[in-house]
Amino acid sequence: DLCGFSPKSSVPPTHQGRTDYLGFHTHFVKMTSLEDVSLQLNNKISSIKRSLQLKSMGNDPSLATMLQKIGLELASIQNSLDTFQAQILRQQTEMKSLKDLKNSVQKNSEIAHHLLENIPAHLPKKATVSSTVDPQDDKVKWDPVQPLPEKKPAKPKHSVREIEYLLMEEFNHVPGYMKGRMTYDQINAVIHELNAAVKAKYKIVHQPLKGMSNITRNQYNAFKEQETKETKGQYFFVEADIKDFTRLKVDKKLQGIFSILRHCHRLREVRGNHFVRYVLL
C-alpha cells in the first residue's frame, strides 16, 4: 500500500507511482498559478487603494499645496531627464563623428607614411643655403649722411616650360605594349633629362646676341632655323638637343618613351625640313 500497489490491483507498482507523481505535479502547478493570480490581484487592489487615498487627499485643502509642489518637482525632474537624454544623444553623435575623424586621420597618416617611404628619385631636393657672412663680424652701420646705393633694376627672367612628370595613375593606364619592361621611375628619369635639355637650349635662345661667343651664336642660329609657324611661342627640342645636352641615347627605348609621353599628352610631334620637333604640351 505504501508503494501504491495492492494484491487486488492490476496496475504495476512503477506505473501507479508515476501516475501519483503526475497528479501531484499538476496540483502543484495549479497552486502556483493561483498564487500568482492572487498576488497580481492583491497588487491591483493596493494600487486602487492608493489611488483612492490620493484622490481623497486632493480634495483636502490642507494637502492641496503639498500635492502641487510634488507635481512641480515631478515636472522639473522630467525636464531634467529630457535634458540629460538630449545631451546623451548629442554626445553619442559627437562620439561617432570623433571616431570617423580618428579613422580619417589614421588613414591619412598611413598615406603620408607611404609617400614618405616612396618619394620618387626625380623630385628635386631642398637646397641648403650657405651663409658667407661670419656671425662674429660687426654689423654694418648705415651713415645717414651718405646716400643709399641705388638698386639696379632686376633683369627679367625667362621661365622655361617643363614636361610634367607622370603620375602613378597615368602610368598604370598606359597600355602594356607601350610600357614593355619600362618602370615608372625610368620614364620620369628620362623626363628629368629632357627638361634639363630644354632648359639649356632656351637659356641660349633667351641670351642677348651681344657678347655671345661664336659657338653659342652658331647654336642660337641653329635653334632659330628649327622654328616654324607651328612652333611659334612653343618650347620644343630635337634629337640633336638630346645628344648635346643630355646623357641619353637616341634609340628604340627612347622612342618608346616618346610614344608614352605622346599618349599621356606631354609631347606632340611637328615634322618638317628633315627635323622631328617634340613640342611640350
Please explain how this structure is put together.
By secondary structure, the chain is mainly alpha-helical. It is 60% helix and 5% strand. The chain has helices at residues 13-59, 61-117, 168-173, 176-179, 184-205, 214-226, 239-245, 252-263, and strands at 236-237, 267-272, 275-280. β2 and β3 (275-280) form a beta hairpin. Mean pLDDT is 79; it is low at 1-13, 127-133 and 137-142.
Largest sheet: 3 strands, antiparallel
Q: Give the oligomer, counting copies of the same chain as homo and different chains as hetero.
A: single chain
Q: H/E element string?
A: HHHHHHEHHEE
Residue fraction in strands: under 5%
Form type? rod-shaped
Sheet with the most strands: spatial strand order = 1-3-2
- Distance between the terminal alpha carbons, to the nearest Å? 115 Å
By DSSP (H or I, 4+ residues per run), the number of helices equals 8
- What is the number of E strands? 3
User: Uncertain runs with pLDDT below 50, 5 residues or more?
Assistant: 1-13, 127-133, 137-142
Please tell me how large the radius of gyration is: 48 Å
Give me the secondary-structure category: mainly alpha
Q: What is the average of the pLDDT values?
A: 79
